[in-house]
Write a structure and sequence with these properties.
Protein-Tyrosine Phosphatase, Chain A, UDP-N-acetylmuramoyl-L-alanine:D-glutamate ligase, Rossmann fold, 9-stranded mixed β-sheet, single chain, alpha/beta, 3 domains
Amino acid sequence: MSKRIVILGSGESGVGAAVLAQAKGFDVFVSDKGAIKDKYKKQLAENNIPFEELQHTEEKIINASEVIKSPGIPDKADLVKKLRSLNIPVISEIEFAGRYTNAKKICITGSNGKTTTTLLTHHILQKAGYNVGLGGNVGKSFAYQVAKENHDYYVLELSSFQLDGMYDFKADVAVLLNITPDHLDRYEYKFENYALSKLRIAQNQTAADSFIYCADDEATLEYVNKVKPTGKMIPFSINKKLEGDAAYLENETQIIININQNQLIMTIDQLALQGKHNVYNAMAASIASRIVDVRKDVVRESMTDFVNAEHRLEFVATINGIEFINDSKATNVNSAWYALETMDKPVVWIAGGTDKGNDYTQLFELVKAKVKAIVCLGEDNSKIIEAFSGVVDVIVEAKTAKEAVAHSYQIGKKGDVVLLSPACASFDLFENYEDRGMQFKGAVRGL
């Protein structure tokens, strides 16, 4: 009798895992507590994979040999607890797919910047002519690509939730950008639990593998010292000159990348993405690319022509001299900090949404220096209003993207920038951050 694989959740990762499990000859069943999107239903039907939606039928799940869980389902869900009590392994799609590929895996995590760094690394490898897939938290399901496409390299963005379900998986090149408080509700509100989850990016590495990390991030350094990764340690910094294999900033203008006693030099004004955080992202992507032998000229050129992801500091339009930028993907305070840090014009800041226990004090200095008005876009804006009253003179409220854009346009003057960088999740007024970004862009284009 063939091994039974049950998949909980039928989004991109769940359906991809189902397709791979079936290709490997397992008895597969997909269960989703919510409704399954039509495109995924179609994929399951085309592959003759049985599924259920709007329920979890327990007897069809607890007879599994192994369960692949969507990263969106918390470990404290009753069904997951029951599976564990029955000693049924619960793993992530990444763990499962990793068993069936010998490709080199460049894996990137961090509280902020991971999507940009992942896309940038993929862009460099693609430009170099490598047979490379993009997956994890971005792009197509890693498992689906392993089943159908068979790449030589994968660049994977990994969230802490994905890392939590990974046990034997190994990254050939692991990148840890930073660790700042996020998703603490999933980690018993303990920063240490979340930080150790991030360090799982380095698990199972050998001395032949590489671990790339930010030497300027105190939390990263603290937990790197606790965990002591076994991969070759390659730090990057914009504050200090580093010896050996590393990347650093010289005279605040030049990025120096040293790998295997071979130096690559770029000036920061050559980067397509500006702002201090993007210097970090560029360093991490450059090191990863040089480790897998991408030529220096290709790395340099890729840095100049890269176009970032939608909803991440995305230019929308300039209307009557007012620039509109969509950074809807900034769902935590740290992401909003990076966005504000990048701005060099007076800012009308659209912020708010579902608060994840945010501490806004770290934004005070930047807001004082750069923000002329705040437009609150959320069901309950009291926390933002309370935090920034006295820091910013003009604070107004909006309940729709259209209203927020109209207020911003009235407040803004030629030479200003209207920045949607909410620092909060979107679920109070929108389906997700993409929906929020799309509605914002639609409203701007409707001015």
